[in-house]
Amino acid sequence: MALIWTTIIVAIVIYMFNKLLNIKNRKKLPPGPWGIPILGHLHLIGKNPHQDFARLAKKYGPFMHIQLGLVPTIVASSPETVEKVLKTYDHVFASRPHHEASQHVCYGQRNLIFSKYGSYWRNMRKLCTLNLLSSQKINSYQPSRKEEVSLLVKSIKRAAHEHVAVDLSANISSLNANLSCLMVFGKKFMDEDLDKRGFKSIVQEVVHLAATPNLGDFFPFLGVLDLQGITGRLKALSKVFDEFLEKIIEEHVQSKEHRETKDFIDTMMEIMQSGEAGFEFDRRHVKAVLLDMLMASMDTSATSVEWILTELLRHPHVMKKLQKELEEVVGLDRMVEESDLENLNYLDRVIKEALRLHSAAPLLVHESIEDCIVDGFFVQKGSRIIVNVYAAQRDTNAWPEPDKFLPERFVESSVDLLGHDFQLLPFGSGRRSCPGMQLGIIIVRLMVAQLVHCFDWELPNGMQPSELDMSEQFGVVTCRAKHLMAIPTYRLQL
Ligand code: HEM
Fold first, then answer.
1. By the number of CB atoms within 10 A of the CB, which of 263, 392, 427, 488 ranks highest?
2. 310 lines ligand 1 (CB under 6 A)
3. ipTM above threshold 0.85
4. What is d(CA 441, CA 444) in angstroms, rounded to the nearest whole number?
5. What is the pTM of this model?
6. Nearest residue (CA) to ligand 1, atom 40
7. 419 with 433: CB under 8 angstroms?
8. End-to-end CA distance of the chain
């Protein structure tokens, strides 16, 4: 108890000291709501922070200042202010804040996703882009994508035969987990392989804990106390992961088998053993990046596909139009091939529009590495910089009727998904944008095209499209709160 009181008193003293400093320096901060001592604005943030920030931005503007505990925070919410953050001042805002979870799970923030901006991040990003995520590497996994998607279609075909509803969310997530494991480890993992709780549930627990607001992230001196017990759980999980990764790396090292398609472990271990990385690169770095690739690829693609299918089920006329395009380009006597994807223009529009409404990562979290002035407003070094993708992608100046699902809005538009346009950023933009974008787009296109081409879909229990629950569950990725269920009918003639 005495410890907690001491902590609270120290927090109050630091808070008052910061306040006094700010008053003395009289720097003009961006507009924002009044906060309360110690907490700042933490109490204004609920289960869906992207929606809470968007509501606040309507009142205080698209470049807003808030205080999350002891951390000064800027939230950019319009395409114009997002451009300032991710383009004009990208060199200042390209770092990441302290992240208690990745300190423990990702070998002291040695991974790419959470590493601070600097030479280590630059070297690691280059290494991953060139060796793991190049076009050549992505193409080398084409056969396993084809095989895994065909297996999913076969299993759904059985459900179609019995005319029963399938859990699309679970199936999509399982397929993505398999694709990621094949790419990273060279094999799929059964549930019991990682721990008796199961591979997927362990990964999901880490992802969930990583997204849970940790007091240590907002009051750094509270980190060691672990008042919420999150750090303890993360340390236990990181031990499970570490043993798992050690075991599988060892299997790779011992294996004399020549593998035609090298998985990420083969590639990373080769680089480590050759000593050619050109920067400190040992087993901890290999393991941190392997975890990155697993976590970054599994849920982002799955969530994107889940939301795209949700919107198609809510808008049957769009589903029909997409099926018509697939019939014209592919025909009904074969399945979609990756080479067909570039000819599917309507598919492209459907995907853009669904990711505009449901970005897997609605908030991008960066950190400022130095003091700077943006449009006359002071941004302090060490500020957390939040890009509210959700708000920018629904900005009324950029998007007429922003809440409506209208793939046709892209007919005359040159806006793409690649981060050139600050009103559509599902993969981010600038230095910290997604290096797995090309792979992510292929997987999403392929899965949506295949599921819509092979099957007609109807909602179970006579549910009307307008009755579909659209609640979101915010996290490292923001997925559907409830699993998507639908009844398939097979439609190909083969
Ligand atoms: C549809 C699928 C995907 C989506 C929507 C997505 C989205 C994103 C977003 C929004 C970011 C953060 C940008 C920022 O903070 O400014 C990101 C970062 C990242 N993504 Fe993806 N991603 C996807 C697939 C993938 C895949 C397949 C991989 C690798 C196998 C990957 C690897 C990464 C990595 C390593 C980062 C961190 C980059 C850095 O901090 O420098 N992503 N992704």
1. 392
2. no
3. yes
4. 5
5. 0.92
6. 113
7. yes
8. 70
